[in-house]
Structure formats: C-alpha cells, structure tokens
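queue> holo job accepted (hexadecan-1-ol)
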Amino acid sequence: MATLEAAHANASTGASTAASADALPDFSSAAYKDAYSRINAIVIEGEQEAHDNYMAIGTLLPAQAEELAKLARMELKHMKGFTACAKNLEVEADMPFAKTFFAPLHGNFQGALAEGKITTCLLIQAILIEAFAISAYHIYIPVADPFARKITEGVVKDEYTHLNYGQEWLKANLAEVREELEQANRDNLPLVRRMLEQVAEDAAVLHMDKEDLMADFLSSYQDVLMEIGLSGREIARMAAAALVG
Ligand code: PL3
Ligand code: FE2
Ligand code: FE2
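queue> job finished
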C-alpha cells in the first residue's frame, strides 16, 4: 500500500544508510566485480523466475491471467535493466551460481504449483520473494553506481505493485487461506533466511549491511501480514519460524 512504501522511503534515509553512502565502494575494483558477478546474477535469475512464476500463477487464477501477465512483463523489464547494470560495470553474471541459490525456493514453488496451491505460490513469489527484493534494493540504492541506482529506483516501485497484488488476494481470501499460509511460511521463511545469509558476504563488498537487509525484510514482511489481517500473535508466530528452520 502507499503507506507501506512511504514508511520504507523514510526508513531508507535513516542514519546507518546515510553513513554507508558516505563511503561508496570502488566499482572498478576486482573485489567489487567478483561480488557483483554473483549478486547481479541472483537478481537476474530472481527477476526471470518471478516472470515465470507470475505466468504460472495465471494458470491457477485464469480470471486474473491478464493482470498476472502484466506483472510478469514488468519482471522481464527488470531483468533487462539489471543485465545492463552488469554490462555497464563490465561484469559477467555468474548464472549457474544464481540457479543453485534459488533452487530450494524454486523447488517449493514448483511443488505447490503442481498441487494447485495458490496461497503457497503467492506467499513464495508475491510476498517472500518480493519483500526480499524490496529490502535488497532499498539497501543497495544508496551504495549503487549512478547508472544502477537509477534503474533500481524504478524497479523498486514496481515491486510494491507485486507485493500489493499478493497482499490483496490473500486478504480477500483470508478465511480460507489462513492454515495454508502458516504452513507455507513454516516451509519457506527459513529458506529466505538462509538466502539472506548466503548473500551477506558478497553484499558486504557492495557496502550493503546484513542486519539492515534482515531488518528491512522483516519489517516489510510483518507489515504485509498485518495488512492481510493476521493478529499480532499470529505474525509473531510466523516470524519465529525464521529462527527454527
Ligand atoms: C522479483 O521481482 C525480484 C526477485 C529478485 C530477488 C533479488 C534478490 C536480491 C539479492 C541481493 C541484491 C542486491 C541488489 C543488487 C542489484 C544488482
Ligand atoms: Fe522484479
Ligand atoms: Fe516483482
């Protein structure tokens, strides 16, 4: 929702982000390019899979297939934007690494899709992956090179549209989706936590702080669960699943 986006715009001008923006990384160093080859690949793979996932969700929700195809098209545009970012820095994206990085979450999405589990598919793609992307892009923007910063700023706006799509569908169907939502969270939130941990070392080379990433992610995620209509206690239980997995 608009309020959610505004809250995060404020958060990303916070003190810790401002401090790291003072010290921009050396975009042409070998260390930066090496880390960027993996981070950029993760983003490209994530955008490509997001495209495929929205198209797949369209097969489960035929009445909304057109709207979902529109969301999917935005993902391809994002993918092209981030491909240009790597080219601009003369970096080659490590795509095999990125495929491995997404494999567990991808596997869970495919399993849910095969069983026609709309709630699980939406939680994985439209909530968890989008909240992960939004937190990463927020933290990246102040320390990005000028070319990538402009592209990422455009992308992040679209990602809120995607997050809101999932949020509104789940909210409208809350009574029927509650139980599946809790199970899907238990199965997938630990995977997202592991992904954040796996990316942390490379992200640090880009001057992105792991705790900032985690905090931004959890704050988006909790806001969404609240908007969907879950109670404070349910939200706390769901967030606690990140500690268990
Ligand atoms: C769905 O719209 C997008 C899915 C993308 C997943 C992004 C994962 C982000 C990992 C850390 C990236 C930092 C940003 C760097 C940009 C080149
Ligand atoms: Fe995207
Ligand atoms: Fe998206």
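queue> Residues 47, 50, 75, 78, 133, 155, 159 surround fe (ii) ion (ligand 2) (CB under 6 Å).
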